Amino acid sequence: MSVFNNLPTPPAAAKKPVTDTRHGITRTDDYAWLRAGNWQAMFKDTSILDPEIRSYLEAENAYMEAAMADTKELQGQLFAEMKGRIKEDDSSIPMKDGLFAYGSAFVTGGEQPRYFRIPRDGNPKDETIRELLLDGDKEAVGKDYFRLSGIDHTSDHAFGIWGYDDKGSEYYTLRIRDLATKQDLDDVLENTAGGGVWAPDGESFFYTLQDENHRPSKVFHHIVGQPQSSDRLVYEEKDPGFFMGVGGSLLDDFIFIDIHDHETSEYRILSTKDLTAEPVLVAEREEGVEYSMTEGGDVFYILTNADGAKDFKIVEAPVSAPGKANWKDLVPHEPGRLILNHMAFARHLVWLERREGLPVIMIRDRTSGEEHSIAFAEEAYSLGLQGAAEYDTDVIRFSYSSMTTPSQLFDYNMATRERILLKTQEVPSGHKPEDYVTRRVFAEAHDGETVPVTLLYRKDTKLDGSAPCLLYGYGAYGITIPAGFNTNCLSLADRGFVYAIAHIRGGKDKGFSWYEDGKMEKKVNTFKDFISAADHLVKEGFTAYDRIIAEGGSAGGMLMGAVANMAPEKFAGIIAAVPFVDVLNTMLDDTLPLTPPEWPEWGNPIESEEEYRWIAAYSPYDNVEKKPYPPIIALSGLTDPRVTYWEPTKWIARLRATAPEAGPFLLKTNMAAGHGGKSGRFQRLEEIAFEYAYAIKVAGKV
């Protein structure tokens, strides 16, 4: 029996067929018209959206509201619970950097962070010594959407660069703030990627500009007080398949220009002794070879997969000659030990690695070569390595949590191995870890592999197949979903849900090969792994097929579309957030922001018929058929540059037209946000409360 009753007639998108022939294969797209021809300009000014498209999106929103009307009270309850678990006036532990320690905080009722500093050795709990540098709530007044990119101070602590996006389109405006007067200078830099790197003298900085197709393609050098139009172009990346970013070193000796796609990287470095020089190439890009750099005084430490080091190794090279010919292995490649990132300090080298799906922080004494680890004993947990803001230090900072253990922040002395607990995440409404169970189980995949699945549920939940389950998955770009503390999912656990994360192929949960086995021609493994996770949970009595609500976002939204096509009978409902479901059309459109950089992940269907056929075989939009689909909701943002709004819009339209007896199919478009949804911390909770209310409704618990 459907939980959606007395629904109004759903919107029916007009069919305006457009045909496309590639490699001798002709496809017809009835809903291509939903892609705004002026999308680049519309991302900056949504008022120019085609009225027909706007009218259709608004009709879909109205239908969605009608379908979810009976959950309004539940949404309010969920929001109140989630908000009640957040310490409203929370504050970070300031990080020491020279004369000051810098931190951020929220005020009660505030949506945006406030950035502050205190004297270096001041008491972090003494709010009277805080010097407020930037008030996010004040800057956000009058804006429907507002997201800060943070604030970065000069070495002499006199000025700070801060950035904001007020459209959700991820075009950031940069301003320069005098940290003494708290006033912004006249400099205004538009269409940036969101941050900058100061030169040591504090009189200029480097930043990345987004082009008209939303690609960070140029690095500029800006001199304070000069107009943006006079900024010097430092480097331009002309290959649209590569992203670019700019960063600095703790010693302020170098500016790093990082150029990369999903499998190949290249660095160019600029000595801060001559800011007008041309950047120097470190190692020429070589397809499939990745590397990243950190400075260690007279050497660079380079994390790379060169020479067949699939799970990465760390090499060192002299600063005077950092080319690949001079790379010398320091931390050798060890199959099954995936090195994720690294950082260097005056006396120690630090890296985060993953073994058997669990993270470990490793410390190496740079003089003796002695190594030791920071690890924990729980069955599943998450570590975050923050490091330090200073080079000449023995103290680094890291965080720890598990699905049941609130986040803990530690300072760790690498020389004495002393661990100091700085802060434990407060849950104001209360949290008893002993009331919950965290487990890691392993599902057998179609090809004999084992898929880790992390579970959270209340200790008193009956594991007899009667519990509803929210099964979350992502599985792309090598991203690992951590088994960390999440106060929001407690609202589901407290209602008898099993909350599950499927660590499927496409991530790096079990090493780099786990990623390789879930991309390109092997992408279907990602989808089959997720279905195997659902099968295992049913087999072991954690839930039943008619109680599983699947959820994924972005590339995980593609996963949702694919499993809906492959095994609709195994899910009670599906939540697809900003879902990348129109894969083939997007990968055929090289004007879109992420298309050329995405080809190494999905394939290039423009150039290759084989890769065209791979994608066509699973692309959710292209494989919609008349099937018994469960209820599906798609969530999107009008100004999303990553997964454009028309992808979920077209998908829902095709689902509804092709399988009219199934569903229902709902579309919720945020008309004032992009890929990440609403920007405020409580506004975001409203969206999560909506998603959870949908899951609870579909599970028949409203």
Radius of gyration: 25 Å
Low-confidence stretches: none
Number of helices: 13
Give the mean pLDDT: 95
Strand order of the largest sheet: 30-31-33-32-34-35-36-37
Annotation, overall tally of beta strands: 37
SSE class: alpha+beta
The amount of beta strand, in percent, is 25-35%
Helix content: 10-25%
Give the overall shape. Answer: globular
Main sheet record: 8 strands, mixed
Compute the separation of the termini in Å. Answer: 14 Å
Structure characteristics:
eight-stranded mixed beta sheet, alpha+beta, 13 helices, 37 strands, 702 residues
Structural description of this entry:
This protein has 702 residues and is an alpha+beta fold. It is 19% helix and 33% strand. The strands form 8 sheets. An 8-stranded mixed beta sheet has the order 30-31-33-32-34-35-36-37, sandwiched between helices. A 7-stranded antiparallel beta sheet has the order 7-8-9-10-11-12-13, with no helix packed on it. A hairpin with a 3-residue loop joins strand 22 (337-344) and strand 23 (348-355). Helix 3 crosses helix 13 (681-698) and helix 7 crosses helix 8. The longest helix is centred in the last third of the chain and has 18 residues, at 681-698. It starts with 17 loop residues before the first strand and ends with a helix. This is S9 family peptidase. Residues 1-21 are annotated as: Disordered. Residues 485-700 form the Peptidase S9 prolyl oligopeptidase catalytic domain. It comes from Peteryoungia desertarenae. Residues 10-424 form the Peptidase S9A N-terminal domain.
